[in-house]
Amino acid sequence: MGPTTDTPIGEIEAFSIGKMHIVQAGGFEIGVVRHDDNSFHAIRNRCPHKGAPLCQGSFGGTMLPSAPSELHYGLEQTVVRCPWHGYEFDLATGQGLFSNENMRVRTFPVTVRDGIAYLTGLPTQARQRGEAA
Amino acid sequence: MSTTLNEQSRPAEQQLDIIDCDVHPVIRGGMRTLYDYMPTAWSKRFQAKSTELVSVAPLTLRFQHPNGSALRQDVHAPDGGPAGSDPAQVRQHLMVENGIGCALLNCLQPGALAAALSGPEESAVLCTASNDFFLDQWHLTGSGPLRLAMSVPVQDPEAAAAEIKRLGSNPAIAAISLPLLNILMGNRYYHPIYAAAQEYALPILVHVTGADCIYQGAPVAAGGWPENYNERYVDLSQIGEANLVSLVFSGVLERFPGLKIMFVEYGFAWAVPLLWRMDRTWRSLRHETPWVLKSPFDYVRDRIRFTTQPLDEPERRAELEQLIAMLGPELLLYSSDYPHWDNDMPGETLRTLPAETRRMIFADNAKKILRL
Ligand code: FES
């Protein structure tokens, strides 16, 4: 991987807790979530299934695999569900959930310094070219 | 729209000049909007009944979409209305950004009303009002990129035929959207509608209306009543299968030699084994239905087409491509189903097929069946 850079995406207060925010950085659209401990997760806003704006679906938990006729809700604040065909992904890892397809969405580390959130690991070159890899 | 769409657009598709055979516009403002397109007595009646025209047929809890709506969650009209209610947005977001040069509008609101949600007289008024609304408010003239699959009040076949005669010469009409009842398509009940369709050289388009498997009078799936959305969603293709068998063995395709049928959103993967069985049955027992003059395969090749969405996705893509080769790519029509949750955008659909096959499915086949 080429050189990377830290890209500021805003003051942490600008991100309401537990909500998906979409930012532009490094030529990507990225969904960013701030948690109540002021940690962040960031995931690319493009579904690997058929290219939908993934983060414009719902964000929350889901029904865990269960015995027939039972419902168990879990993974609150973890599951990004695509607005099109409904595929579910883990916000933290980008890994597809409960599927026989091995799909993964790109995720980006977020660091916080002096009240500002930074996306890290964005490729500098792509950023310069404004490229959506 | 959000800039996400810039990430998605594929300008190369524009060379194909795609024809999209299934787009679902929504009547902006709902029932009230249609009052201007009907006699006062009827608008009074609908007002008095406090009727609303929701964007898709109201589903009972049992069959409600698991995510709350069958519409895409990432699209809303600029005025906050439902996806599909703003013509400029449909033009830009669906068509320009995906290289779609022509879209067939098929509004499901009058379809569900005609199939089951309203009475026969009510649905005749509503279908007429809806057709006139789209011709007027979506500026459909027959020369632009949008065409209408006109709605017909199927509970009154004579009224449906009259509606076809009223609008059949309008160049903006490219097909007739026939909301099915729980009466198979080969049944003589539909003859007046077929006669009118044939007279105006308009194909009959059948599509699930939203009332299927839910409301009495609408088609049902085989074997029993599904228990949830997922079961029903999968079972809906059975309605396509049963109707294809009925069309062929009833002889209705001989009775109406100009009749052409589009099966929209019922899938097509089932068609090959179904045709094998129909063909075998015809060869053995042809004499029971001697008006079936040729193999079911031949009727389908000549008169029937299937749309692609929702495209099945086998683990090995090559298997789907093999299936398309077995069916014959000349039988397939690209459809997006925009703005519904399970839509298939052209850039992500059948993209590994050879260019010539793609051209057939995405453009040329539609030109041969739609009245463009
Ligand atoms: S595009 Fe996301 S699930 Fe299909």
Provide a descriptive summary of the structure in words.
The complex is a heterodimer of chains A (133) and B (372). Chain A is mainly β. Chain A has one domain: Rieske [2Fe-2S] iron-sulphur domain (Rieske Iron-sulfur Protein, 3-layer Sandwich). Chain A contains one helix and ten strands, in the order E-E-E-E-E-E-E-E-E-E-H. Chain A has a four-stranded antiparallel sheet, with no helix packed on it. Chain A has a three-stranded antiparallel sheet with strand order 1-10-9. In chain A, strand 9 and strand 10 (116-123) form a beta hairpin. The longest helix of chain A is centred in the C-terminal third of the chain and has 6 residues, at 124-129. Chain A is globular, with a radius of gyration of 15 Å. Mean pLDDT of chain A is 91; it is low at 126-133. By secondary structure, chain B is of the alpha/beta class. Chain B has a single domain, classed as TIM Barrel. In chain B, 40% of the residues lie in helices and 10% in strands. Chain B is built from 15 helices and eight strands. Chain B has helices spanning 4-8, 31-34, 40-48, 87-95, 108-117, 120-137, 157-167, 191-199, 229-235, 237-250, 252-255, 271-285, 296-303, 317-327, 355-369; strands at residues 18-23, 100-105, 146-151, 173-177, 204-207, 261-264, 304-307, 332-333. Chain B has an eight-stranded parallel sheet, sandwiched between helices. Chain B is globular, with a radius of gyration of 20 Å. The interface between A and B is medium-sized, with 19 and 19 residues. Bound molecules: FE2/S2 (inorganic) cluster (FES).
